[in-house]
Amino acid sequence: MNNKVSASKKIRTFAIAWLSSLALFVISLIVNLDIQSITYYMLALLIIFIAVAFAKGGFYYIETESNKESFKIKHFNLFPLTRQYSAIEIRWSRFYNYEVVTKYRGKAHFLILYEQTGRGLAKYPAIGLTALNKSELMSLTEMLEKRTKSKQHKK
């Protein structure tokens, strides 16, 4: 499973919003419109807000692979300046649990995975799920939930 289509839609939406607000800001400076200075500050804040929201809002490209032995999640942040490719592979026998954390008043979602190791419980860094559509999110959580429940029944 991957979110290639929904991720490209999120990137396109971000680019249009950010470039439009940036263009509006630059044009308003060049044309020298008779606008109150507060409007310039508001446009500048909007440009910064859009960039920060996209960078920190959990917009990730995710690709999952699963077999009988393990599962792998490859991911990277869609924000172009902080793009870092990562992958997590966990053997099903060591998979402990997962949780989906919601931030920013329900606007951003993050996946946190837990693995049982020889030294205790390992918590992986959060993976952003905001760029997933509902069916992709459901598919991912169903896979993890099935493994979590089957593990609890074995105990």
Entry summary:
With 155 residues, the protein is α+β, with helices and mostly antiparallel strands. The protein has helices at residues 4-31, 37-56, 134-154, and strands at residues 60-66, 70-77, 86-91, 95-103, 108-117, 120-123, 127-128.
Characterization of the model:
This protein has helices spanning 4-31, 37-56, 134-154, and strands spanning 60-66, 70-77, 86-91, 95-103, 108-117, 120-123, 127-128. 45% of the residues lie in helices and 30% in strands. Strand 5 (108-117) and strand 6 (120-123) form a beta hairpin. The mean pLDDT is 89. The chain is elongated, with a radius of gyration of 20 Å.
Sequence-ordered SSE layout with sheet pairings:
Elements: H1 4-31, H2 37-56, E1 60-66, E2 70-77, E3 86-91, E4 95-103, E5 108-117, E6 120-123, E7 127-128, H3 134-154
Antiparallel strand pairs: 1-2, 2-3, 4-5, 5-6, 5-7
